[in-house]
């Protein structure tokens, strides 16, 4: 019953809010890597699970990486766009399709995504400007402060395959992200 009420409210809310699409140019994180620095094109769909203060929210994300841009579209369980982030290498644009209070720091999702999958060499400028170090093995990464304090921990398990995943513990913001892959297509 509660699920039906939530569904009806979401539909009403969606119809009401469809006119609220407002692209905003945001100040990007310093020295985010260029889209081309990933090296390949990617089209992916993943389930993003965010856990913060013992509460978990889940959304579907569609990711498109090309040499020109990185675009992340967050979708509701019904496939309704919630927000879009687009990074072209110099400017971050955010479009809020609906009110997304539970995901009020969407930039941190894109930031964690870069730190999780981008080639280590392409992250060097960003990491040095932030005063961070990166340690990496085959199945994990640690982003550390220069004093050795863990800021972000990333674990992979065959993330480019269906049901593979990326787990990100963001120690600085005290949250956990888990991206479970539904679809991943990567080409040159």
CATH class: Mainly Beta
Distance between the termini: 48 Å
CATH T-level topology? outer membrane lipoprotein receptor (LolB), chain A
Compressed to H and E, one letter per element, the order equals HEEEEEEHHEEEEE
The count of strands amounts to 11
CATH-defined architecture:
Clam
Helix content: 10-25%
Proportion of strand residues: 35-45%
Low-confidence residue ranges? 1-28
Pfam family, one: DUF3261
InterPro entries: DUF3261
What does this structure look like?
The chain has 188 residues and is α+β, with helices and mostly antiparallel strands. It has helices at residues 2-17, 106-117, 124-130, and strands spanning 22-26, 41-52, 55-65, 70-75, 81-87, 92-96, 132-136, 140-145, 150-157, 165-170, 175-187. The chain has a single domain (2-187), classed as Clam (outer membrane lipoprotein receptor (LolB), chain A), CATH 2.50.20. 19% of the residues lie in helices and 45% in strands. The chain has an eleven-stranded antiparallel sheet with strand order 1-6-5-4-3-2-11-10-9-8-7. The longest helix has 16 residues, at 2-17. The model is unreliable at 1-28 (pLDDT under 50).
Fold blueprint:
Blueprint lengths: L1 H16 L4 E5 L14 E12 L2 E11 L4 E6 L5 E7 L4 E5 L9 H12 L6 H7 L1 E5 L3 E6 L4 E8 L7 E6 L4 E13 L1
Antiparallel strand pairs: 1-6, 2-3, 2-11, 3-4, 4-5, 5-6, 7-8, 8-9, 9-10, 10-11
Key words describing this protein structure:
188 residues; alpha+beta; outer membrane lipoprotein receptor (LolB), chain A; 11-stranded antiparallel β-sheet; 11 strands; 19% helix; globular; disordered N terminus; DUF3261
């Amino acid at each position: 019953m509660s699920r039906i009420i939530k569904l009806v409210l979401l539909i009403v809310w969606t119809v009401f809010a469809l006119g609220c699409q407002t692209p905003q140019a945001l100040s990007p994180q310093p020295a985010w890597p260029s889209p081309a620095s990933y090296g390949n094109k990617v089209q992916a769909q993943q389930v993003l699970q965010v856990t913060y203060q013992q509460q978990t929210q889940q959304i579907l994300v569609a990711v498109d990486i090309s040499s020109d841009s990185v675009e992340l579209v967050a979708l509701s369980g019904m496939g309704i766009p919630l927000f879009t982030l687009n990074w072209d290498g110099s400017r971050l644009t955010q479009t809020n399709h609906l009110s997304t209070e539970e995901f009020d720091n969407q930039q941190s999702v894109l930031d964690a995504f870069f730190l999780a999958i981008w080639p280590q060499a392409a992250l060097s400028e960003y990491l040095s400007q932030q005063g961070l170090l990166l340690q990496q093995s085959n199945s994990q990464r640690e982003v550390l402060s220069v004093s050795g304090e863990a800021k972000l921990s990333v674990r992979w398990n065959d993330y480019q395959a269906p049901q593979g995943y990326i787990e990100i513990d963001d120690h600085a913001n005290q949250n956990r992200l888990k991206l479970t892959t539904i679809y991943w297509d990567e080409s040159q």
